[in-house]
Amino acid sequence: MNKNYYASLLNKNMKKHCSLPLLQVACFVLISLLLQNCGGSHNLPIQGEEEPSTSTTIEKEEGQEQGRRKSAKIEIGEEQEQRLIEQVQETSSFDIFPSEICQYIFSYLKFEDILPARAVNSDWSELITGFRQAGIVGVENKPSHIIDTRGWNKKKEINFHCDKLRVIKPETIPSFAFYCLMGSVRNLPQTFWPHLQGTNVHTILLNQNQLGPIDTVKFIKHLQRTSIHTIDLNNNRIGTKGAIELAKNLQGTNVEIVYLKGNQIEDAGVMEFARNLQSTNVHTVYLRGNKITSRTTKLLKEQYPHIKW
């Protein structure tokens, strides 16, 4: 294939698809030049075109072919040329990647890297946070993207009893931070419990929060379809009946580890509590500091050896 053929083909495509951006036209030109210089592939026939015969080739070489294609000349005005140059200059090397590849790359970033990356421009902000505008607040603004964000968790525990977070409400919390950056959370207020679905929170520490049996069950019900695998409910006066209801509502959750120290749980209901854990993912329960005898503890270990007591 010679240069004239590609110029002619490009001219036809430009007339047929006159709405193509100038940047695509430039890409077509570059591709044609690359194909012209590719050794071993420049003589391959194009799909839908018959391969020329030997006699036709000879006629071309001798200049005897009557149906020789006329060379096409692409003319670009000065204004179009200037716009094309500006578009090429504004295009970064990162822009050539599809958004799916960019999002895949972002998924490998850690907490310390993802924060400055989202501030590069509005496109990156949208790929990372789901929003083109920075600083979106409120739990109702849930980010929508296809990135695996589990690696973005802040390693440091987030305590809502500290001065800066004590005044934060579901309506004022940064949505990106709430859904993507929190991993281990201490003293999470009840107003946030209904919004745990869709977050990356994996550990919730509510020890010494004076929950009682009713609030404890309410909390457990909000763990359905979340990523939470560890809950600390130490010293909350849950009681025996509260522990049984807790175990029932853990069915269908991803919770694996439960801390229940010092909750006034008695021997009478511990075995029923353990039976209800059978159909859950729980494999570790801490029950020290309750009203449980050593005999009952021994029975738990014998009858439910798959759970660490």
UniProtKB/TrEMBL annotation:
Keyword Ligase set for record: no
Superkingdom, natural source: Bacteria
The F-box domain, residue ranges: 98-128
GO CC, alphabetical: cytosol; perinuclear region of cytoplasm
Compositional bias per record (Basic and acidic residues), positions renumbered to this chain: 58-75
CDD domains, A to Z: F-box_SF
Single annotated GO MF: GTPase activator activity
UniProt-listed GO biological process terms: nucleocytoplasmic transport
Alphabetically ordered keywords of this record: GTPase activation, Leucine-rich repeat, Repeat
Chain positions covered by the region annotation Disordered: 45-75
Annotated protein name in UniProt: F-box domain-containing protein
